[in-house]
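Q: Hi! Curious about what DUF8113 domain-containing protein looks like structurally. Here's the sequence.
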Amino acid sequence: MSDDATGEFDELRNRAAEAIAGDDVQSLYVGLVHENGAKEYYFGNTVDEEELGQVAAVQLGMMMRVLSTQSATTPEDLADIAVEQAASIDIHPE
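A: Let's find out. The predicted structure is below.
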């Protein structure tokens, strides 16, 4: 990673950490992929079960938009890849 990309990444990580600490956050998901391939995630929310599906869909939609905008992959292709990954990854919250 170039020094510019590293600086941008560090800036984004700091902004995200500040945003997560906000009092008005009702749902959050943080997924980490480490250099060695290890994966971990953190998910929590204050919404009820009825709202959870909608909130999760909003979070997935946000992630799909960002990833498709920053890559040469369509949202549909990303969805297909994500379904395959979800089926093959055994992820447990830490």
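A: A fun detail: The first strand starts at residue 27 and ends at 33.
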